[in-house]
Amino acid sequence: MQKYGGRNVPRYTSYPTAPHFSDAVGVDDYKQWLSELTPSDPLSLYLHVPFCEVLCWYCGCATQVARNYGPVAEYARILEREITTASRHLRTPGPVRHLHWGGGSPNRLNAADFFSLMSLLRRHFPFADDAELAIELDPRTLDDSQIDAYARSGINRASLGLQDFTPLVQKSINREQPFELVEQRVGALRAAGIGDLNFDLMYGLPHQSAEDAEESVLLALSLKPSRIAVFGYAHVPWMRRHQKLIPENALPGPSKRREQADLMARRIQAAGYVRIGLDHFARPEDPMAIAAAAGTLRRNFQGYTTDDASALIGFGASSIGALPRGYIQNIPDARLYESSVRDTGFAVARGIELGESDRLRRRIIEKLMCDERVDLEETCAEHGANVEDLSLNAAALGEMRDDGLLAWDGNRIDMTPEGRPYIRVVAALFDAYLTTGKGRHSGAI
């Protein structure tokens, strides 16, 4: 399977993917799209905090180091303005069913600013009683006052970045966090009533061996999280210059990455977790496992999700919104974002309006990524199209079938267990934009 593992393909947290957004879609389009939402449209909110106290060299996110709190406090005030402005363009907002704080490190915000922002959101948006309110956390900088603010704000799920517990690996990625520290912070979150915890682990890191990856999984499992995500390190120094601090000769190759990923998956499944899609695992009673079994799992910019909201509204630098009409992305640079919001209340940089072909291909890719199968005839019929409209690459699908990645009868595609790691390669066959533009992507494995 080595010929597939080295292919560079998108992660497909959206379709079309972000490299194909353009400035042809701007703030006036966004205002119009917001105004078209109705009270019957459930909402999802995403807030991006582009700051960390220390930069992790593996990171592919839009973030920057802020050792002093002044810039973070100013950013919080700008977020308040953007939230207030956007809410004025919603006639009567529907219920918020999901909220997600991402970064960077959202816990770079102090307790007071976080609680103030959550209070503002509740004033402008109605929250469903059973809404999932989640936050990504850096255990190294998480203090008790923040945990208290999260609990008082209604946060009910937290995601902790663990990556790997091996000292050499941690030093090589500039993220040193002993297991004992993580264990203590997990206990503090649970004591505050935040019991649904997600852990993020990684493979393919510098100097990481299969034994390192396995030991990190076993330590993480000992803390009994609700969900575990196992991501492959994406080495994209052309996008994130700080990744140049990681020597490429210290990175495991595709076959070793596959060995690490397979071993980690076996250990997690042996502990009773259900495997979900490409890289997630959940306890059988977790909503994500239930959604996967029911065929209602979705995928968005946070990865796999139970979120089926009609619209995702993004706030903050680089955040991406997904509305019925299309995608909107904010200015990635935090200073330029702040300047734009001060002047206009918005910071739209680019976007893309969806056509019918986009919606059809997006659904096919999402079904592959979430369900590991897709009935092309059925999905095309749902979108008023024919399979012939897809211009299928029958030769590529036939080759993948012969190589054991999938079953294909000319209409229905079913990924095999051996083919699961290469779902993105199969999904890429339906990407009409992949050979256009300047997008560069990470390896499939």
| Helical/strand content category | alpha/beta
| Fraction of residues in H or I helices | 25-40%
Strand segment count: 19
Distance between the termini: 10 Å
Strand order of the largest sheet: 9-10-8-7-6-5-4-1-13
What is the count of helical runs?
15
Largest sheet: 9 strands, mixed
Overall pLDDT score? 94
Q: Beta-strand percentage?
A: 15-25%
Structural key phrases:
445 residues, alpha/beta, 9-stranded mixed sheet, 3-stranded antiparallel sheet, 36% helix, 21% strand
Please explain how this structure is put together.
The chain is α/β, with parallel strands linked by helices. The relative contact order is 0.17. A hairpin with a 2-residue loop joins β14 and β15. α3 runs parallel beside α4 (111-124) and α3 packs across α11. The strands form 5 sheets. A 9-stranded mixed beta sheet has the order 9-10-8-7-6-5-4-1-13, with helices on both faces. It is globular. It is built from 15 helices and 19 strands. The chain is 36% helix and 21% strand.
Which helices and strands occur, and which strands form pairs?
Layout: H1 2-5, H2 27-35, E1 43-49, E2 51-52, E3 64-65, H3 70-88, E4 96-103, H4 111-124, E5 127-137, H5 144-153, E6 157-163, H6 167-172, H7 179-191, E7 196-203, H8 210-221, E8 227-232, H9 254-270, E9 274-276, E10 280-282, H10 287-294, E11 298-300, E12 303-305, E13 311-315, E14 320-323, E15 326-330, H11 334-344, E16 348-353, H12 356-371, E17 373-375, H13 376-382, H14 394-402, E18 406-408, E19 412-415, H15 423-427
Helix pairs in contact: 3-4, 3-11, 4-5, 8-9
